[in-house]
Amino acid sequence: MSSLITEDEISHETALVWLEEITDLDYVRQSLDRLPTRRGKPAYHRDGRMIGYALLGPGAKASRSSGTFRRRVFWLLPHDRDAQPDGLYATGAPAEAVDPRTLAVGVKGYKTERSEGGPPSSAMQELGITLPL
Predict the structure, then answer these.
(1) Which residues lie closer than 8 Å to 77 by C-beta, 6 or more apart?
(2) What is the DSSP letter of 66?
C-alpha cells in the first residue's frame, strides 16, 4: 500500500517514466516491486495495465538475499475508475491509490479530493460523465 511506502525507500529514484498521459487520471495505484534491475521497463504480471515506473540511480543497493531492487510501479486494474466510472470506485479509491499529480521523484504522493471521487477529471467532463454524490 502506498501509505506503507516511506521516503527513504524511494530516495534513490532518479526519474519517473510514464507510459500513459496521467493528467486525465484521477488516481493510479502504486507499489514497491522487487525487480532485477535499477532501470528499464519492468515486466508486468498483474491484471490491468502498467501506467509508469521509477528508475533508480547507481547508489541504489540490491537486496543481499535476492539481488533485486525495490522500485515503484504505477498501475490500474480493469475495474478502476478510468475504465468503469460508475463501478466499484465511482467514489473512494483503493488503499494503494494516489493522485498522480502529487507524485515526483522521491515523493510518495497522496490522495486528494479528486482521487477520492471529487471533481471529475477533464476527460470525464468531456465525455459527459458525472460521479454520484
Answers:
(1) 29, 46, 47, 48
(2) T
SS (H, E, C) 4-29: HCCHHHHCCEEEEEECCCCCCCCCEE
Residue 53 has pLDDT above 90, yes or no: yes
pLDDT tens column, 55-70: 999 999 999 999 999 9
d(CA 127, CA 23): 15
Beta strand pairing call for 69-76 and 13-18:
unpaired
Query: Does the CA dihedral 76-82-83-88 come out positive or negative?
Result: positive
Name the residue with cell 514497491.
32
pLDDT digits 0-9 by tens, 71-92: 999 999 999 999 999 999 988 9
